[in-house]
Amino acid sequence: MELTGAEIVLRCLQEEGVEHVFGYPGGSVLNIYDEFFKQDKVKHFLVRHEQGAVHAADGYSRSSKRIGVALVTSGPGVTNAVTGIATAYMDSVPLVILTGQVPTHAIGQDAFQECDTVGITRPCVKHNFLVKDVRQLASTIKKAFYLAATGRPGPVLVDIPKDITQARTEYAYPQTVQLRSYNPVTKGHQGQIRKAVQLLLEAKRPMVYAGGGVVLNDAAGELTKLVRLLGFPCTTTLMGLGGYPGTDPLSVGMPGMHGTYEANMAMQQCDVLLAVGARFDDRVIGNPNHFNRESRRIIHVDIDPSSISKRVKVDIPIVGYVKDVVEEMLKQIETIKERPDLAALAEWWKQIEEWRAKDCLRYDRKSDKIKPQSVVEKLCELTQGKAFVTSDVGQHQMWAAQYYKFDQPRRWINSGGLGTMGFGLPAAMGVQTANPGQTVCCITGEASIQMCIQELATCKQYHLPIKIVNLNNRYLGMVRQWQEFFYGNRYAESYMESLPDFVRLAEAYGHVGLRVDRPQDVEGALKEALSLKDRLVFIDVITDQTENVFPMVAAGKGLSEMILSEQI
Amino acid sequence: MRHILSILVENEAGALSRIAGLFSARGYNIESLTVAPTEDPTMSRMTIITTGSDDIIEQITKQLNKLVDVVKVVDLTEGNHIERELMLVKVRAAGKEREEMKRLADIFRGRILDVTDKSYTIELTGTGEKLDAFLCAIEPGVILETVRTGASGIGRGDRILKI
Questions:
Q1: How many whole angstroms separate alpha carbon A529 and alpha carbon A335?
Q2: What are the pLDDT digits (tens) for B89-148?
Q3: What percent of chain A is predicted at pLDDT more than 70?
Q4: Which stretches of chain A drop beneath a pLDDT of 50?
């Protein structure tokens, strides 16, 4: 059957089982939009800015295991989308981004709304394509979906010139993909796994360090089994929260710059470290030389060989899907008789409990100002730790990560790698779309929320009842904290004087706005918001202006060189 | 340490910029880069001369392998290999310098490709070191122009880079 390029795009999306696309129309994608109009299998969500479209597709994917899809027009549509694409790339989120392009004959002529999309996005996609022949359109889209989801996932972009969407060709959707240059190693090496298991069982002070790979590869169940079988302490990174239950006694919280005292001390002093789907990035290991002062053996399981021995040398590298590798470890442990050295392990736990007893997340609960930590704790309590929580970037993100205890994977959605302010609200739209009827909260700050605030209109149009918890301290809080600690209290450009009235702003967009400025009113406001099941509620929480995030490992410092709160 | 990376890549538009972009984005060195299609026109063979510690070379190799267009990467310096570079050099050759220049070109097994009454254009093939040595052997003042291809490399004996 002969179809136009635009018809083929829609057919391919349907073949891939895509139900939701986030996008924004424009000249070069009008043919594709016309095809959207003519069908009702794939639902399109009109965002208010292309950055929002990609973040929404991103949140959709992170919370649902599915591939997120965004569609934007050429030129400014693409450049606006770049922040979203780079965000997804840094956090390995499988997305397919379809972009319009000027007609092939106009490429390179500085045409209206032309930009070198493939060139601009090249460093922040897993791969990208420019389709120059309509006969290659279907196979290219197939490749894009395949590449996005396999190996280390990531965003893949397909740039489609307008004349290609008009051209006609015989349509057949390829069933399989063959790429001779793309064969990621997915199955861990048996011998390496055996060595790793031996090492784990010989450990005196073992530690499990689980990252975003555990969540992305749906390995939380396997990892939880392994950790419990061995009785080892487990730390989950910012990207790995929920990969191991946060309320479990074996969980020691998050490691790194704002990690817990016990997690950081245990990372530093363990003798065997099992890293699973984590990458020793600079916010976890700020100073590799300091980290290497203590000798330990490291096992590193990751799908991406280039993540192994990049910042920290490892002893037993295992390349493969973490789910399969951990499963294989479990199998091997079950068939052999050796078990961990219980006496040594008890001694190690005694030490960890001593560190834990420091209660490093303590804060002033008697303050007459609203402490941001208490808001997150209360939200966690009221939602039984089961809500989907998105965040923006800054202090509120760290408090959300520290005080909301995630027991399940794919519940905590944040921009960990790129650190994109403005991520939270549009991401929550994607999360809510993928999980209708579920509680979706966006913990944000008054600075971050303003970076994509226009999406409140999208939420209204599609009835997305997100609960926005705005921890409003009238400061760019994390910037202010660094200025207090490292720049002699010189608060350069970190204060905002003319903030909008967020309650009235929410109302102007057709939503419910609430303001809380006394600690005793927090619970009531959160309860009220959660009870309004079908409304978006914007809760503007006026918090203590100068609260800081603790513990803190300053940039470039060692894990055991934490700054602790004065409360401790 | 100097390394010679041999890379098979899909002969696709943009493959070269993906590789060049990887080196610049991650701060790796490129001393030289040559590329041309192979006997299979769907594939190109690239030789990159780079420098870095073992850790950096390991990362470069891993990052290259991660690129979807890259089919295979081999570090030729890990084994026996042959390395050749072509240089065209235009030199002043007038009066009594003329005979001396001819002799020098012969010593280095260069071929004179073009002649005017004041200059020679010499073709020279060899390792980068040999080409450097030739340039050192002649007086800097007589060099009018040089153009070098950058090195190409191939494994010795049965070492073959193919899919």
A1: 52
A2: 999 999 888 999 999 999 999 999 999 999 999 999 999 999 999 999 998 899 999 999
A3: 100
A4: none
Residue A371 is classified by DSSP as P
Facing B17 at nearest CB: one of A122, A127, A309: A122
Nearest CB to B59 within list A119, A181, A310: A310
Verify whether the Cβ–Cβ distance B25 to A123 is below 8 Å.
Answer: yes
Do the bridges between strand A316-319 and strand A297-302 make them parallel or antiparallel, or are there none, so unpaired? parallel
Within a 10 A sphere around the Cβ of A407, how many other Cβ atoms? Answer: 18
What residues of chain B lie within 8 A of the CB of A306, using their CB? 59, 62-63, 65-66
Alpha-carbon gap, residue A10 to A14, rounded angstroms: 6
Return the H-helix or E-strand segment holding A565. Answer: none
pLDDT digits (tens, 9 = 90+) for A403-443: 999 999 999 999 999 999 999 999 999 999 999 999 999 99
**Cβ of residue A136 closer than 8 Å to a chain B Cβ:** no
3-state secondary structure A6-31: HHHHHHHHHHCCCCEEEECCCHHHHH
Which residues are within 8 A (CB) of A521 and not within 5 positions of it... i.e. 6 or more apart? none
In one letter, which amino acid is A242? G
Please tell me whether the overall predicted TM-score, pTM, comes out greater than 0.90 for this model. Answer: yes
Q: Is B21 in Cβ contact with A182 (below 8 Å)?
A: no
Measured CA to CA, the distance from residue A372 to residue A90 in angstroms comes to 28
Residue of chain B minimizing CA distance to A143: B68
Q: How many CA atoms lie within 13 A of A537 on its CB side?
A: 21
Q: For B71, which of A118, A130, A181 is closest by C-beta distance?
A: A181
- Rounded to whole angstroms, what are the CA distances from A206 to A51, A267, A346, A506? 42, 9, 11, 49
A317 vs chain B: nearest CA distance in angstroms? 13
Residues of A within 8 A of B10 (CB-CB) are 181
Best mutation target among A156, A181, A302 (most B Cβ atoms within 10 Å) is A181
Torsion of CA A107, A111, A113, A118, to 10 degrees: 20
Count CB atoms within 10 A of the CB of residue A506. 24
* Helix/strand/coil (H/E/C) assignment for every residue in A394-425: CHHHHHHHHHCCCCCCCCEECCCCCCCCCCHH
Pair type for strands A440-445 and B152-155? unpaired
Contact between A81 and A53 under an 8 Å Cβ cutoff? The reply is yes
Q: Give per-residue pLDDT as tens, A93-132.
A: 999 999 999 999 999 999 999 999 999 999 999 999 999 9
- DSSP lists the bridge partners of residue A537 as A467, A512
φ, ψ of residue A323 in degrees (nearest 5): -60, -50
Give yes or no for B162 touching A (CB within 8 A).
Answer: no
Q: Which residues contact A456 (CB under 8 A, 6 or more apart)?
A: A425, A505, A506, A509, A511, A536, A538
pLDDT tens track for A232-258 = 999 999 999 999 999 999 999 999 999
